[in-house]
C-alpha cells in the first residue's frame, strides 16, 4: 500500500474516532449537566432510565431519531436542511487540530487529526463559520422568531469574536507562533501561560461563553423573549444536530483554553518524581482539564441569570473589547522595553488587571447596565407637518 494512502486511511480513522468520541461526550454531557443542575437546585435529575439514569442519553437519541420531522410550509427546504449540518460540521472539524499528546504516542501514531502551522487562526476561522448554520437556520425557517434568534446570534458572534481574538494577541506575541504544538512546547519550558496572561484568559473565557451561546449569553434562544429563537421551527434529528453543535463547541472551547493557558496535554512536572513520565501520558491530562472547564460551564448556568440583549452588547463593546485591546498594548509595550528581564513582571501586571476588575466591578457595572436610550425631548423625529 502506498504511503500516502496509508496516511490518508489513518487520518480518516482518527477523524472517525474523534467524531465518535465527541458525540459520545455530548450524549453523556447532557446527562451529567442535568444531574448536576438537579443537585445544585436540590432535585434528583433524570434517574429513571437504566441504572442511575445512565441510559437516558440513549433514550433521548432514540426519541430524536424517530420523532416526526416537521417541515414548515414557508421554509426554504434546502437551506433549512443544510443549516444544522453546517453547524455540527464546523464544530466537529475544529476539534481535530488540537494535540492530545506527544508525537507518536497513540499506538505509534500522532494524537491529532491534522496539524497546521496556523493552528489557532484556523480554529478561530472554523468556529466562526458555525454562526452561518444558526443564521441560515433562522432565515430559512420562514417565521419571525427564528430570524430574530439568527440576527441576535450573528450580532453576538461578531461583537465577542473581536474581544476573543484580541485577548489572544498578547499570548501570540509572547510565544511567537500560532501552532498549538509550539504553544504547548513553550509552556513546557516556561510555565503555563495563565501565569503571564491571566487577564487575557479571563477575557477569552468570557468570550467563549458568548461564542457558545451559553448562560448568561444564551440570548439567541431566549425562551421568554423569542420562544426558542432559531430552534423554534426545528424538531427531531435537525433539532438534535443543533444541540450537538452547541455542546461540541463547548468541548472545543474547553480544549482550547486548556491548550493555550494551562499547558495543553502536558501534566504537572513534579508528578514525574512519583511516576516517571506521567506528565507526558497522552489524552489523560487534556481530558481532565476539559472536564474542569465543562463543569465550569454547567456551574455558571446554574448560578447566573441571563443578561438582557442590550446589556450583552454593551458588555462586549464597552468592557471586553477595550480590556482586550489594553491587554494587547500592555503586552506589546512590555516585550518592547523589557530588555533582558523575564516575564514575571508582566504576569504581575496582568493579575493586577484581573484584581482591579474584581475590586471595581460595582463601578464598571454602569458600562453595561446604563441605558443608552436618549430622553424623549432629545429625539429628532423624521418628517414634518
UniProtKB/TrEMBL annotation:
A Pfam family the protein falls into: NADHdh
Entries under InterPro entries matching the protein: NADH_UbQ_OxRdtase_su1/FPO (IPR001694), NADH_UbQ_OxRdtase_su1_CS (IPR018086)
Highest taxon, organism lineage: Bacteria
Keywords tagged on the record: Cell membrane, Membrane, NAD, Quinone, Translocase, Transmembrane, Transmembrane helix, Ubiquinone
GO biological process: aerobic respiration
EC number(s) stated in the UniProt entry for this protein: 7.1.1.-
Top EC class for this record: translocase
Bilayer topology: Multi-pass membrane protein
Gene Ontology MF annotations: NADH dehydrogenase activity; oxidoreductase activity, acting on NAD(P)H, quinone or similar compound as acceptor; quinone binding
Transmembrane segments: 6-31, 78-100, 120-141, 162-186, 192-210, 247-263, 283-304, 316-337, 343-360
Keyword rRNA-binding: no
Signal peptide: none
Cellular component annotations (GO), alphabetically ordered: plasma membrane
Reactions mediated catalytically: a quinone + NADH + 5 H(+)(in) = a quinol + NAD(+) + 4 H(+)(out)
UniProt-annotated location(s): Cell membrane; Membrane
Protein family per UniProt: Belongs to the complex I subunit 1 family.
Function, as annotated: NDH-1 shuttles electrons from NADH, via FMN and iron-sulfur (Fe-S) centers, to quinones in the respiratory chain. The immediate electron acceptor for the enzyme in this species is believed to be ubiquinone. Couples the redox reaction to proton translocation (for every two electrons transferred, four hydrogen ions are translocated across the cytoplasmic membrane), and thus conserves the redox energy in a proton gradient. This subunit may bind ubiquinone.
Subunit field text: NDH-1 is composed of 15 different subunits. Subunits NuoA, H, J, K, L, M, N constitute the membrane sector of the complex.
Name of the protein in question: NADH-quinone oxidoreductase subunit H
Amino acid at each position: 500500500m502506498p504511503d500516502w494512502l496509508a496516511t490518508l486511511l489513518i487520518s480518516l480513522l482518527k477523524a472517525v474516532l474523534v467524531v465518535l468520541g465527541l458525540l459520545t461526550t455530548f450524549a453523556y454531557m447532557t446527562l451529567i449537566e442535568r444531574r448536576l443542575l438537579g443537585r445544585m437546585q436540590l432535585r434528583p435529575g433524570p434517574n429513571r432510565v437504566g441504572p442511575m439514569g445512565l441510559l437516558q442519553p440513549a433514550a433521548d437519541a432514540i426519541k430524536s431519531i424517530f420523532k416526526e420531522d416537521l417541515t414548515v410550509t414557508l421554509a426554504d427546504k434546502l437551506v433549512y436542511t443544510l443549516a444544522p449540518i453546517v453547524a455540527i460540521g464546523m464544530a466537529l472539524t475544529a476539534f481535530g487540530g488540537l494535540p492530545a499528546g506527544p508525537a507518536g504516542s497513540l499506538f505509534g501514531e500522532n494524537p491529532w487529526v491534522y496539524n497546521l502551522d496556523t493552528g489557532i487562526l484556523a480554529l478561530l476561522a472554523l468556529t466562526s463559520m458555525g454562526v452561518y448554520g444558526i443564521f441560515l437556520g433562522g432565515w430559512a425557517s420562514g417565521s419571525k422568531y427564528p430570524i430574530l434568534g439568527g440576527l441576535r446570534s450573528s450580532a453576538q458572534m461578531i461583537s465577542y469574536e473581536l474581544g476573543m481574538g484580541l485577548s489572544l494577541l498578547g499570548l501570540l506575541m509572547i510565544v511567537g507562533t500560532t501552532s498549538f504544538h509550539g504553544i504547548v512546547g513553550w509552556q513546557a519550558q516556561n510555565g503555563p501561560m495563565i501565569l503571564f496572561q491571566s487577564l487575557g484568559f479571563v477575557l477569552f473565557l468570557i468570550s467563549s461563553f458568548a461564542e457558545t451561546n451559553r448562560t448568561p449569553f444564551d440570548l439567541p434562544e431566549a425562551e421568554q423573549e423569542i420562544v426558542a429563537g432559531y430552534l423554534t421551527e426545528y424538531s427531531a434529528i435537525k433539532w438534535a444536530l443543533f444541540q450537538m453543535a452547541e455542546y461540541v463547541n463547548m468541548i472545543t472551547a474547553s480544549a482550547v483554553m486548556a491548550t493555550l493557558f494551562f499547558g495543553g496535554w502536558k501534566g504537572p512536572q513534579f508528578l514525574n518524581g512519583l511516576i516517571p513520565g506521567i506528565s507526558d501520558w497522552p489524552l489523560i491530562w487534556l481530558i481532565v482539564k476539559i472536564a474542569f472547564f465543562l463543569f465550569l460551564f454547567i456551574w455558571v448556568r446554574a448560578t447566573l441569570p441571563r443578561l438582557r440583549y442590550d446589556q450583552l452588547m454593551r458588555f462586549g463593546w464597552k468592557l471586553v473589547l477595550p480590556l482586550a485591546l489594553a491587554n494587547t498594548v500592555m503586552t506589546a509595550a512590555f516585550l518592547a522595553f523589557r530588555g533582558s528581564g523575564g516575564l514575571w513582571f508582566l504576569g504581575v501586571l496582568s493579575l493586577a488587571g484581573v484584581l482591579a476588575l474584581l475590586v471595581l466591578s460595582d463601578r464598571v457595572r454602569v458600562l453595561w447596565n446604563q441605558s443608552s436610550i436618549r430622553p424623549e425631548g432629545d429625539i429628532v423625529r423624521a418628517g414634518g407637518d
